[in-house]
Design a protein that fits this description.
The protein is mostly helical. It has helices at residues 2-45, 52-73, 89-124, 135-139, 141-162.
Length: 184
């Protein structure tokens, strides 16, 4: 039953990854371009662009929260693995399932709170000072990032429950190699 959904989930995950990669790379390139243009303008014309700092702050929010799902997908997130690294076999896999489920649920709860916050910001009608962008549009990426990250963790738990081996994420199988010489 679980293997029936695997190709569909994998395809959806790859499409989302392509979107995330595009958003992340475009945002980083745009940050660099406007920052360089601002420095050039300040040094050549004696004038800075008023919107650059604000735009970079918006892009940092975007990068941070779009990057959550991307980081989880590639198992590039922070892990506290002191206990995990000492475990083997079924216990190790069980701990990975528990951690993935708990983290996925936590991120979805945070997404719910973030949605409430975004709704509150929407109701105030707040906009950014220089570019006049509605703040709720900026902060809308926060719950999106939490939801995508939460889904990635839940997919990792599902993958560990339905397939052999230990997966750090839906895509990333654990490739643990013990230290040389038997040292720990």
């Amino acid at each position: 039953m679980a293997s029936r959904f695997l190709p569909l989930i994998t395809k959806a995950d790859r499409l989302l990854e392509a979107f995330e990669r595009l958003v992340l790379s475009a945002s980083i390139l745009l940050m660099a371009a406007v920052s360089i243009a601002n420095v050039a303008s300040r040094n050549l014309l004696g004038q800075s662009f008023t919107f650059v700092e604000e735009l970079n702050q918006i892009l940092m929010i975007l990068i941070t929260f779009v990057g959550i799902g991307y980081g989880v997908r590639h198992a590039r997130h922070i892990r506290m693995s002191a206990i995990y690294d000492q475990l083997k076999g079924t216990v190790r896999k069980a701990l990975m399932v528990i951690v993935s489920l708990a983290t996925g649920i936590l991120l979805l709860v945070l997404a719910w709170y973030a949605v409430q916050y975004v709704i509150g910001v929407y109701r105030t009608g707040s906009v950014t000072p220089a570019m006049r962008v509605p703040l709720y549009l900026v902060y809308a990426w926060v719950p999106v990032g939490f939801v995508v990250g939460g889904i990635q963790y839940l997919l990792a738990a599902w993958r560990n429950l339905t397939t052999p081996g230990v997966y750090l994420s839906f895509q990333q199988k654990e490739a643990y190699e013990p230290p040389a010489g038997g040292e720990t």
